[in-house]
Amino acid sequence: MASLKSKWEEIANARAREKKTHVSFPQLKYPSLRDSGMRDPVQWLTGKALDDGAEGLWRIHGKLYDVTKFLNKHPGGEEWLELTKGTDITEAFESHHLNPATEKILEKYYVRDAKTPRNSPFTFKDDGFYRTLKREVYKELSKVPKHVSRTADLITDGLFLSLLCSSALACWVVNSWLAQLWYIIASICLALLTVACHNFIHRKTNWRMFLFNLSMWSYRDFRVSHVLSHHLFTNTLMDLEISSLEPILQYNPRKNKPVYARLGFITEFFFFPLIFFALFLKRFVSIFVREEFLKKHYGWHDCLGFLLPLWMWLITGSPITKVLYVWFWIICTGSLLFHLIGVNAAHHHPDAIKDGDQPRNETPDWGEHQVEALLDRKDINSNTFAVVTLFGEHALHHMFPTLDHLVLKYLHPLFLQTCDKYKAKYRVSTQFEMVLGQIKETMRTDYKSID
Question: At what angle do helices 176-201 and 148-172 cross, to 10 degrees?
């Protein structure tokens, strides 16, 4: 056993140093533009287009499609197709379209076969884990009560109203202790609202997804970094939610991980409060330093974050300097809380597979990889409010992201049956154990090998 582990560590360490391929999937080239420039969604899409062999079209499996004429007909909205033009959208297509009739529509837009192999390790075999589960889920959805999604809507709307009230009160009250209390409540509401809005960003264009921008972050950027990158290539080198935090925070195991990265569970408390504003400024600066960024990627929704301080000023009549001061700290504290919720949710634990760990299969079923790349939290999944506001039902959400979070519990028995059938490595933990696991993961430098 020891010699096998030692052999894998030697191989993995060499691949990590050379940066020519993925460590866990050596058949794939190292992602273009991963470690340079702004490390943002636009750069990620650009690098992906360089590697995917889509020839300026949309690639699904080994075929190229031109869906230009379908843009305004796409049920999910034009934006998803506009963002992904020139890339391989296999994982997105598979996980976002449960109805088998979708493939019939796709046939109309076929152009030609791709010339290169897919730059992804994942497979979607008809008799494999994910497609089997997807077929059963599609049938099961007809049995789910229709009113279920309404609860998530009400929770989101309630958090939005609570944010408006608490932020105004934080400016209006004279007593400093009460002002502090309302500022803390407003910060919590902002963080939880931002998480809850994530439930709507995965779906077709809707008004609740725009509430995400009250955080000063762009829902459009999040659609790339979270939906198209993290969800589809979880814990791999193509996961932008990992690479965008480097080198300050390093969640992939590496032998040469610096001390400050190993102490990321401390560093994050200084880094996370600045992220919301930093991401806004990054987009704003891009207008001036990137060609056609304003035309292609910037929009009216990028200004929505300023509606919160405007509301606080109009309702309370407080001096603008006080409003901006309180708003600044609400955003910073909200940013800290949101990111602490995120990094402690499911993926950053020593038992979750990362790039550098030896996979059981170099071409794994996509669904089985999702199961191995996370741990669910039983205490979160048992509470409706927590599921919506703390990234609950994480395993099923990753595999069926367009479904409302509160629908997923009705699919859980079916999911467990499929895991048992395919011997998928589904694990359950608690929120407290995930917090401890995140600390261990930031410090981890060794590569896991197959026993």
Answer: 150
Q: Which residues contact 6 (CB under 8 A, 6 or more apart)?
A: none
Give 365's pLDDT tier (boundaries 50, 70, 90): very high
DSSP state of 68: G
Neighbours of 224 (CB within 10 A): 22
Please, which pLDDT band fits residue 2 given cuts at 50, 70 and 90? low
CB 318 within 8 A of CB 171: yes
- Residues 236, 347, 378, 190, CA torsion sign: negative
Q: What is the pLDDT, as a whole number, of residue 451?
A: 60
Helix (H) or strand (E) holding 111: strand 110-113
Single pTM value for the model: 0.94
Contact (CB, 8 A) for 442 and 348: yes
Q: What is the pLDDT of residues 230-243, one digit of tens each?
A: 999 999 999 999 99
Token pair for 143: 């049995």
**Distances 356 to 137, 170, 235, 435 between C-alpha atoms, Å:** 32, 47, 10, 22
pLDDT at 383: 95
C-alpha span between 241 and 21 (Å, rounded): 19
Rounded-to-integer distance, Cα 31 and Cα 14, Å? 17
Q: 10 Å Cβ neighbour count for 245?
A: 20
CA atoms within 13 A on the CB side of 420: 6
CA angle in degrees (0–180, nearest 5) for 393-398-400: 90
